[in-house]
Amino acid sequence: MKKLIKYTLASMIALTLVDCTSDFENINTNPAGVSTESLTQMNNHIGGSFTPMFLNVMNVTPAWNFQLQQNLNGDVYSGYMTPPTPFAGNVNNMTYSLVDGWNGFPWSDAYGNVMPFVLDIKNAVENGGDPAGVKFVHLADIIKVTAMHRVSDVYGPIRYSKYDDFATTGEYDSQDVAYATFFAELEEAIEGLKAFEADTQFVPFDMSSLEGDIALWRAFANSVRLRLAIRIAKVDPALAKTQGELSLASDAGLLESDMFINTGFAHPLTVISGSWGDIRMGAEMESILTGYNDGRIEKYFSPAEDEDLAGAYKGIRMGIEIEAKTEYGAHSAIGSVIEGETMQWMSAAEVDFLQAEAALRGWTGAGTAATHYENGVTASFAQHGVADVATYLADNTSTPADFVDALNSDNDIIYASDVKIAYDATGTNEEQLEQIITQKWIAMFPDGQEAWSEFRRTGYPRIFPVMVNNSGGTIDTDIQIRRINFVESERNTNGANVDIAVGYLGGPDTGGTRLWWDVAGSNF
Questions:
Q1: What are phi and psi of 375, to 5 degrees?
Q2: Percent of the chain, pLDDT > 90?
Q3: Is the pLDDT assigned to residue 293 strictly greater than 80?
């Protein structure tokens, strides 16, 4: 309750500081109060708007909001986690009967708590007349891109480049236009913040582990640019190479430490997994981590509480027949990786794996794939305090294990690859990429949204198909789910523009339609 109150107060303060500035003069007549002039001097009229943005790129609280924003879509579609709970009689997202009441939350969190506050910051800076205030606009844009590329990677077309104009705010961008805008805004922020690297005015408002260091924010923005360049490497290799090489050559550098948001709230997965028991280890995580004898499993998950499993780490395959929560509820819960009051936005390991793929694709300035691959694994082991990475990296025999369901052999499945740990630079590009993405997938845990995007883009790691498909034929069992359909509230209030957005998809508004960057076939 204390944390909910704290969040509510933070949101109220942010809203008050942004939307009620006209009342400050009357309110602050008490000599002991804070004047409008003082608030402006401290930039609180701007800084307060960052709070809801930080808390909603990945929603922090309440836990049920995060459960609907990410956990019951990206987290499960990535292979990271599976609910033991047969929500709605097992006719739900996990069995491809997409629940509109759930799937609007990635949209509503972004358009309720990110986009409006970016606009408020821009307006406050413009009205304030201080040229130095532009740094806050650049910082807000970095957070906006971080949030909104995730939204686009769920739905496809989004309302973005025309959002700030009331006359066009309901209009959608096709995903390629949205991505072009992401790149333009990141470039402007990276270059625009260069003059403010010694500036400390963002320090009081920065809820991240970057602690208001503008140089580190430039590196983070540049790393996001590399993430997005890699994301479009199949659909537009020329643009991807251009943006990737800009990132690799930038004087901003790349993120060398993990990017966390210091929320002040427990990670929502501690509630979903611990208090509610509504999420457990995914079958793919069991197959890969146990097959590799990967020490990170002890950080990511807890041993199963089911006495019959004798302390083993045990996962659940998504999309199977489940009648009651008690069947699989004693399988492995989420482990100590979610302890504390932080949310991971990007890890140093991910940045190494991005560079590894860039090198594999021959981008100038990327270095060598093998070096970045090994650096990425090493960074992930260090992040989680796991020892003996050298022995792990030298393992050229271990492969992912086949999955064996503890209760129903009908759910057993062979892992469809013998991908190994030790990097094989003599392998084909496709074989090397599978190694890179498999380790990247392990390292990005527990951010299932990014992991799902990478699976859709590359086909790696090998996510198991569902056993029960309630999509009515709109989602192919073998191709698997590719996106979430547009939200019901948008159809009800902005229907004409949604119809145009559906046209941008190049297919029906279903979970079976691929996004712009999700191109079938070889990765090279």
A1: -65, -40
A2: 91
A3: yes
Amino acid at 110: A
**pTM (whole model) above 0.70:** yes
Q: How far is CA 274 from CA 39, 267, 329, in A?
A: 41, 11, 11
Band of residue 22 on the pLDDT scale cut at 50, 70, 90: very low
**Total number of domains constituting the chain:** 1
Residue type, 472: G
The residues with which 301 forms a beta bridge, in sequence order, are 334
CATH number at 78 reads 1.25.40.390
What is the amino acid identity at position 291?
G
Q: φ and ψ at 282, to 5 degrees? A: -80, 155
Greatest Cα-to-Cα distance within the chain, rounded to the nearest angstrom: 74
Q: Is 250 helix (H, G, I), strand (E, B) or coil?
A: coil
d(CA 107, CA 320): 28
The predicted structure's pLDDT at residue 56: 98
Run of H or E including 81: strand 81-82
Whole-angstrom distance, CA of residue 92 vs CA of residue 102: 9
Question: Collapsing DSSP states into helix, strand and coil, what is residue 124?
Answer: helix
| Per-position b or e across 371-400, b if 16+ CB within 10 A of its CB | ebbbbbbbbbbebbebeebeebbeeeebbb
> Does a structural domain hold residue 362?
yes
Our CA angle for 349, 351, 354, nearest 5°, is: 115
**79-91 pLDDT tens trace:** 999 999 999 999 9
How far apart CA 260 and CA 209 sit, in angstroms, is 5
Residue spans of alpha helices (H) in 301-399: 325-328, 348-360, 369-383, 389-393
Inside any domain, residue 261: yes
Of the listed ranges 20-29, 153-162, 188-197, 246-255, the one predicted with least confidence: 20-29
* Residues forming a β-bridge with 274: none
Strand, helix or coil for residue 360: helix
Question: Whole domain around residue 461: which residue ranges?
Answer: 2-268+351-505
Report residue 431's pLDDT band, with 50, 70 and 90 as the boundaries.
very high
What pLDDT is attached to residue 41? 52
